[in-house]
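Request: How about a record?
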Amino acid sequence: MILELKGVEAGYGPIKVLHGVNITAKKGDIIAIVGPNGSGKSTTIKSIFGLVQPEKGQIIFKEKKLVGQTADQIVHHGVSYVPQGRMVFQTMTVEENLEMGAYILKDKKVIQERLKKMYNMFPILEEKKNQQATFLSGGQQQMLSIARALMLEPELLLLDEPSLGLAPNMMVNIFRTIKEINKTGTTIVLVEQNAHMALEICDKAYVLEQGKIALSGGSEIAKKKQVKELYLGH
C-alpha cells in the first residue's frame, strides 16, 4: 500500500468530525471518497495533507508517518493538494501561478521543463500564460489549480471537490484530465460531491457518513441500493 489511514479521528477543536476512518490506496489507484455534505470528506483529505491534525490514528504514506507533520513537510514526501474552490492567485499570471507550484524546486531548468509538460497537458493555459488568473473561466481556474499541484510531479495527488460549481461540459473535461494524470502513475485521492462521475473512474470508493466509513468497494458499489438512494437518486 502506498497510503494507509488507520483509525483516524479528527475534527476542529471540540467538534469531532472523523470517527475511526480506515482507508487504503495502492500505487496508481484512483480512490473516491463520496458522501453527503458534512460527512467528513474534506476533513479526511485535509488530515492526509496535514492541514488538520488527527487526535488519534495513523496516516502512513510510503512507510512514512504523516500525523504530526505540517503540509510544508508533507509536500516534500511527494504529496500535492488541490483545495476546494479553485484557490488560484488571482492577481498573478497563469505562468506565475504555475511557478508558485514549484516553489521547493531550485533548478530553473527543471522548472521550465515542468512548465512545458503542463502546457502540453493543458494547452489553454499556455494560450493564456501571460493573463492574470482572475480572467480565466471557472473551469480554466480549476485546470490551473490542478496543473500548479502537478508542478512537483507528486506521487500522490489529493483533489478536494474538483468539479464543484463547474458547467457539465467542463466537469467532463476535468474528470477526463484526472484519468489522464492517473495514467502517468500518479495515485489520486478524490473527494467529490458528484458521486456518479467519481464512482465511474475510481478503482476503489469509500462512502462516508457522519465521519465513519459506511461502505467501501470498487465502482460496483454504485449499484448498491443504499448508495443509489442516498447519493445517486433512485
The chain has one domain: 3-232. The first helix runs from residue 41 to 48. The mean pLDDT is 92.
